[in-house]
Amino acid sequence: MDALKIYRETFVWDDHGGFTVLPGQNLGPLLAPWHAAGVDYLSVNAGIDAYPPETILKTLTWIHRALPTQAPFVRLVSSVAEIDAARAEGKMAVSFDIEGMRVLDGRPERIAELYDLGVRHMNFAYNLNSAAGSGCHDDDTGLTDLGRAAIDEMNRVGMVVDCTHCGYRTTMEAMERSTAPVNFTHSNPKALNDHGRNILDDQIKACAETGGVIGINGINLFLGVKTATPRDVARHAAYVAELTSVDHVGICLDDAPTYEDPEGADFLAHTPGADRYWPASEGYDQSLGCLNVRHLPEVAVELAKLGFDAEDLRKILGQNFRRVAEAVWKTPTAAPLAMKGA
């Protein structure tokens, strides 16, 4: 079996780019590596809990306006059908995700506005507790009333519930409450590396029971290695597949240009409250790195070496995440807010 040929021909879905876009950045060079790697769909991170709501909203509206001129090889999409149309044009489809619910400012009704702006998945907290739920590096307090209301609204509008970066109780309560598939978009199994950001077997199984997908990231700290390789990512993917089935595994490297910085973890310093969101006690003071997206085809090769066949590779590389989107995404409720009055 020619795994590289399968990679070139199949649909590739990356459910979270590890960079945070801020207004004024040049989107072309930022997104080009994913397009060059043959990624067909990329979810762009529009912000994390460290940033105030107004910054994230400003970022979303700015990207809507800047993307056509700065990255003409990309198409902003709102449906799976539009993803297919973009692929047919040779363009990479993108929409957005948000890490944490500070952006809601306590108002679950804002979820519909975010959905209309292209946000297709969101989690409850980014490492630290939020008004919606607990973070994986904080007291495990579980879902709040806001978190429960947010799940109901996300199910209603068609936004995927994401449990990455969240505390154990929050994830289990969220998966029990949601009536739609729930994903861990970029989380690795704790059984292979006992890190606070990784997830337990029962979280993985509960995710699969919702119909969701666990996306394996390429961060060296979470893989438990000094330098991440395609084989490391494939090994974590194989563990999840064996624990559940191949239908519940994806690859979501969480790559970002900043991981190429030889200063390693110093790139975290630009984020407000970095020392709290990335505590040194969890190893974030070491040199952080991530498997670069250009190595994604090699992950397919390593998966084939582990015994995954052509259909398995297609599922892991994109079809599984696509299946969840087809099941959850709905028609936006209104014209994108970014376009109103433009």
Distance between the termini: 51 Å
**Assembly state of the chains shown:** single chain
Helix share bin: 25-40%
From the coordinates shown, what is the CATH architecture? Alpha-Beta Barrel
Beta content: 5-15%
| Mean pLDDT over all positions | 92
What summary fits the major beta sheet? 7 strands, parallel
Write the layout of secondary structure elements.
Elements: H1 3-9, E1 13-14, H2 27-36, E2 41-48, H3 53-70, E3 74-76, H4 80-88, E4 92-99, H5 110-116, E5 119-123, H6 145-157, E6 160-162, H7 168-177, E7 182-183, H8 201-210, E8 214-216, H9 220-223, H10 230-243, E9 249-251, H11 274-277, H12 296-305, H13 310-328
Parallel strand pairs: 1-2, 2-4, 3-4, 4-5, 5-6, 6-7, 8-9
